[in-house]
Amino acid sequence: MNTWQRYQPTPQHPWNPGRVAHLHRRAVFGLTWNELQRDLSGQPQDAVSRVLSDEARIDGLPADFENLADLIGKAADQQPNAERLKAWWIYRILYTPAPLQERLTLMWHNHFATSNLKVNNLPFMKQQNETFRKHATSSFGDLLRAMLHDPALLVWLDAPSNRRGHANENLGRELLELFTLGIGNYSEADVKEAARALTGLDLKEGQFHIDPLRHDAGEKTILGKTATFDAEQLTELLLQNPATSRRLADRLINEFFSEGVVSKTAHQELALQLQSSNLNIGQAVETILRSQLFFSDANINTRISDPLSFLIAPLRALELFDPPPSTLALCEWLNRMGLELFFPPNVAGWPGGRSWLTTRTVIARANYAAAILSGDVYRPATPPDLHALTKKHATNNSDQFEKMMNTLLLGDVNVKQTTESTTPTAASREAGSVLALLTGFHAHLH
Questions:
Q1: Distant-in-sequence, close-in-space partners of 147: CB < 8 Å, separation ≥ 6
Q2: Residue 50, SS3 per DSSP
Q3: pLDDT the model gives residue 232
Q4: Whole-angstrom Cα distance, residue 160 to residue 201?
Q5: What's CA 144's distance to the chain center, in Å?
């Protein structure tokens, strides 16, 4: 696969702070100065290996992360409060030793976009989130089968009302249109027949259940093939269809690349790799992250940063781990920036890209940057000690601190400050620099 050749540094495309920051910001929600220096001193493929093997993070790793995450998750389960469930996921993203897994969990949440607005069952939503995490990098077939047993998705797409003689097409339509083949690769007749194949999928006492009395066992013709399809046979038919591998290639390219970076040839090659590898998502992600394309100039600082990346990257850059910020406060900011976890806007999910930037959400981003520096992400408010961070990492002067923040937050681009602090203290100058970086145009790109 020549278009997916591995990145090797050259004088024209060196392994520099910008490319290190790009890897972490695009794949694992940002990095700290220690992580940047470690990767910069080694080989790029070693840095990618650390991302893939959950060894990318040095800082902000609680020794009891899994226990704490479990406690927060159980508390969210026991209280009918969606904000606490969002806070649980944000805690995981900020502190997990496996941030790529969380990045892909978010991607699958957008792929199988399920909203608690209709499901109205937070334990179901949490269970779905855990399923995305479990199958984040596995064969897509494993994830798809798990989703067709998933209580939240079945409620969301009216599967329990889909029965013999009274087919409900919602699940069948989205299965073909959004989850596998994509628009243009099936007919309305295929949707109707797929709905018949999916009859009988039900819930019993909150658990997946197949009701054989509701299943239509008659012959169906789907995508030109005739058989007595049931849900499992339909799933296998869709997984083998080349359109599914193309749809998944679209999803992965949209996750890791800016618009126009990946050619049709490269897209086709990635789809062929997926098809030949039994739709192995982890293998495709590795191909992407190791590639020359991923590290190309066209792909660096040219993608609109999604709100979750905008939320987490500054916290990691400023090492705001101990004490931890209020994840409930972070939930509020994420909502204002247009990403309400567990509540996608519709079955197609969040469109992403330029749609992230509206008058309201850009103002929210600027206010969030100010909130970080005023300490309003803590309860009670606790301003970060930027001067201590300067002394820890930038021993020369405030200019060195500004360079450090520029690299961490923006990927080593040359940003001309639009504001200059005239206050006398070093900490004030540093705060002014960070605020200018965060609220500047380039801060919305990653």
A1: 112, 131, 153, 179
A2: helix
A3: 97
A4: 6
A5: 18
* 205 φ/ψ sector (left φ>0, alpha ψ -120 to 50, else beta): left
Q: Answer whether 384's CB lies under 8 Å from 321's CB.
A: no
Nearest to residue 437, comparing CAs of 424, 26, 413? Answer: 413
Long-range CB contacts for residues 63-68, cutoff 8 Å, separation at least 24: 65/95, 65/96, 65/97, 68/95
Residue 405 host element (H or E): helix 398-410
Question: How confident is the model over 257-311, as pLDDT tens digits?
Answer: 999 999 999 999 999 999 999 999 999 999 999 999 999 999 999 999 999 999 9
Residue 229 CA: distances (Å) to CA of 163, 220, 238, 315, 341: 14, 6, 12, 50, 35
183: tokens are 């628009």
Residue 412's CB is within 10 A of a number of other CB atoms, namely: 18
Domain boundaries, the chain: 118-293
Is residue 376 within 8 Å of residue 329, measured between CB atoms?
yes
For residue 211, give both structure tokens.
């009701």
When pLDDT is cut at 50, 70 and 90, the band that residue 409 belongs to is: confident
Question: What pLDDT band is residue 416 in, cutting at 50, 70 and 90?
Answer: very low
DSSP per-residue letters across 155-222: HHTTGGG-BTTB---HHHHHIIIIISS-TTSS-HHHHHHHHHHTTTEEEETTEEEE-TTT---S-EEE
